């Protein structure tokens, strides 16, 4: 209603950055998580940019109400509990020069990636932030600003002294995702470090290892500003923990809080993960099924692992309240203890016995079995700590994915490791594992009868050996009969072009980041064989964890 009154009261729009009214409406959209209102503000802002008008004081209806009267608006606006901005504004209108106009456009385009964390009382619990107004703006290193998804997964990561498990964790998560699921979720990596060089190195390794996921927007990398963290030098040592451990768990509480607040407006559900886990097949569908079958909406946490803070599912609408509780006591206890205390406060009666309390908490915190996530890290993020934590309800890791493929004879020039044969991989019994390939090596599938194939999928590497991928490898088919496509692929005088090999195979695809997937054109006709040709020496072993030949 306020938006309509505002636009009806004037004959032109204002830019978000320069018009007090528009900025107030923008802040209202942010506080209410109203994405449609946010888009409307941005849309009208572009109009003022094109006209070069900056209405610091356009003809505003003096009777129009201030867009927000809440204390939260004053806090967001001023960064302190000060006076409200003047309403309506009185500064004269100005023209915006071209350079300033371009800068404004850039800010509007990047608006969704620069939204501050939304928690009105955060300055009470972290008073040092009053002196650092920009500390609640995340540093979005990688991200397309995706919102409106069903599931947001949060993964905090810090620098480990011995070994990083992050890429293996991501490989496991994406390995078990369908294309449809990738379009309806966001995986947010929170690099909880302030060293820019380290943050950028993590971002670069993620970008290199998962280029498609980065480009599509399903994968984001963010980090905090150094000023987000308070002074940790005066923390009280409690529960027999050393000073270093108290600092570690205190910072961890702040890291989880930052990540949760960033993820909150992006989707419907938030799944808390860690950077050293593996996932079970179809974990997203199993999470969805478990959530949908709950008899009531009273739950606050669905658990898909019994370990620590791994595999905890929340509704995003509950996150601000949960985070506020964390921030109240972030110096006092570890995150998993605080979560349990939060549930105690919600439902436990001090006049009843502990058994009754546990029964009441069980309505809010519901456990799913078997576990969908397993902890694989050995070296903790706490320096010097070794932890061989394993979830007994997880079961055995699945290191391959089985499919029913058409009958074929399989051969390879690669030297096979132990019992990990190509035959077992093709039949879905195990993965195929071989020593390091060299240029000229191949993997060949010759069908017993020519067939019409619609597509293919070859996945190299798995969750335990994510680096054992095929590189510089092409997918080639041998048509059962000469087709027009093959004739066109052969140059004048019998010479071949880039689409064909010297021995007559037709190139139809290539491995990208260890995966080859594609559709086989009907114009190819029936095929007799599919071959994977390796064109350069590899420094790593080769592992095929999934083989799929799609037939009509």
Automatic annotation (TrEMBL):
Keyword Amino-acid biosynthesis: no
GO molecular function: acetylglucosaminyltransferase activity
GO cellular component, one term: endoplasmic reticulum
Residue stretches making up the MGAT4 conserved region domain: 118-394
Alphabetic keyword roster: Glycosyltransferase, Transferase
Pathway(s) where this gene product acts: Protein modification; protein glycosylation
Residue span(s) of domain MGAT4 A/B/C C-terminal: 408-546
TM region positions: none
Pfam families found in the cross-reference section: MGAT4_cons, MGAT4A_C
GO biological process: protein N-linked glycosylation
Protein name in the entry: Alpha-1,3-mannosyl-glycoprotein 4-beta-N-acetylglucosaminyltransferase B
Species, as recorded: Chelonia mydas
Taxonomic lineage: Eukaryota, Metazoa, Chordata, Craniata, Vertebrata
């Amino acid at each position: 209603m306020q938006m309509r009154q505002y636009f009806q009261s004037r004959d032109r729009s204002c830019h978000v950055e320069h018009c007090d009214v528009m900025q107030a409406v923008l802040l209202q959209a942010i506080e209410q998580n109203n994405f449609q209102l946010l888009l409307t503000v941005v849309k009208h802002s572009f109009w003022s940019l094109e006209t070069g008008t900056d209405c610091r004081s356009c003809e505003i209806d003096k009777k129009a109400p201030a867009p927000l009267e809440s204390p939260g608006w004053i806090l967001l606006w001023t960064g302190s509990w000060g006076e409200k901005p003047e309403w309506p504004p009185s500064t004269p209108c100005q023209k915006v020069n071209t350079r300033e106009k371009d800068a404004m456009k850039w800010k509007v385009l990047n608006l969704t990636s620069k939204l501050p964390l939304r928690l009105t009382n955060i300055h009470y619990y972290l008073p040092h932030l009053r002196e650092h107004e920009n500390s609640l703006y995340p540093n979005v290193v990688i991200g397309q600003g995706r919102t409106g998804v069903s599931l947001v997964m949060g993964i905090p990561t810090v620098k480990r002294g011995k070994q990083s498990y992050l890429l293996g964790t991501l490989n496991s998560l994406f390995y078990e995702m369908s294309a449809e699921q990738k379009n309806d979720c966001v995986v947010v990596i929170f690099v909880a470090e302030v060293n820019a060089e380290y943050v950028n190195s993590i971002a670069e390794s993620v970008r290199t290892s998962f280029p498609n996921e980065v480009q599509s927007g399903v994968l984001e990398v963010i980090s905090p500003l150094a000023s987000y963290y308070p002074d940790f030098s005066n923390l009280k040592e409690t529960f027999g923990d050393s000073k270093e451990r108290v600092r570690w768990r205190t910072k961890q509480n702040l890291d989880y809080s930052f990540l949760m607040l960033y993820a909150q407006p992006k989707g419907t559900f938030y799944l808390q993960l860690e950077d050293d886990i593996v996932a079970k097949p179809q974990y997203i569908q199993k999470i969805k099924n478990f959530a949908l079958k709950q008899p009531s909406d009273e739950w606050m946490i669905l658990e898909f692992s019994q370990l620590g803070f791994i595999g905890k599912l929340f509704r995003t609408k509950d996150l601000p309240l949960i985070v506020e509780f964390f921030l109240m006591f972030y110096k006092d206890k570890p995150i998993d203890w605080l979560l349990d205390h939060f549930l105690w406060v919600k439902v436990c009666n001090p006049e009843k016995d502990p058994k009754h309390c546990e029964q009441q908490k069980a309505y809010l915190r519901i456990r799913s079995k078997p576990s969908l996530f397993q902890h694989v890290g050995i070296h903790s993020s706490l320096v010097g700590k070794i932890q061989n934590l394993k979830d007994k309800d997880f079961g055995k890791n699945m290191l391959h994915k089985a499919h029913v493929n058409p009958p074929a004879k399989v051969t390879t020039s690669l030297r096979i490791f132990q019992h990990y044969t190509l035959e077992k991989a093709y039949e879905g019994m195990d993965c195929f594992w071989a020593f390091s390939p060299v240029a000229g090596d191949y993997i060949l599938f010759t069908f017993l009868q020519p067939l019409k194939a619609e597509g293919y999928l070859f996945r190299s590497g798995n969750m335990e050996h994510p680096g054992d991928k095929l590189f510089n490898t092409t997918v080639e088919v041998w048509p059962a009969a000469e087709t027009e496509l093959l004739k066109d692929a052969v140059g004048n005088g019998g010479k071949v072009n880039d689409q064909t090999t010297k021995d007559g195979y037709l190139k139809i695809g290539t491995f990208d980041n260890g995966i080859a997937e594609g559709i086989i054109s009907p114009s190819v006709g029936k095929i007799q064989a599919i071959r994977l040709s390796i064109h350069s020496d590899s420094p790593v072993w080769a592992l095929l964890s999934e083989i799929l030949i799609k037939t009509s």
